[in-house]
Amino acid sequence: MSRTGYDREQATSALEAAWSDVVPEPLRSASRPGLVRRGVLEVFVSHSAHVQEFGFQKQSIVSRLRTALPAAGISDIRCRIQPDAGGTT
Q1: Does a structural domain hold residue 37?
Q2: For the chain, what is the domain count?
Q3: Which of 57, 59, 74, 84 has a Cα-to-Cα distance from 22 of 20 to 30 A?
Q4: Helix 6-22 × helix 48-68 angle, to 10°
Q5: pLDDT tens readout for residues 44-78
Q6: How far apart are CA 65 and CA 22, in angstroms?
Q7: What is the CATH number of the domain that holds 46?
């Protein structure tokens, strides 16, 4: 199954579900999670102000994501601006 990408699809679905449970609503609606590489979750946000807000709440969000998805090994969040990030989850 891993050859077909099924395991990656399942991991993405689990991350998106955890994201909707963990991230506060104002940030959730303006962002979407990307891939986890070497413990760093790439997050796409719709505006630079959201990058700053994620900076303020990063430790709390990372801690809650670690609890929700221990196998993902998330240790940090990096934000990238993508204007259509909000609402495309």
Answers
A1: yes
A2: 1
A3: 84
A4: 110
A5: 999 999 999 999 999 999 999 999 999 999 999 99
A6: 7
A7: 3.30.300.180
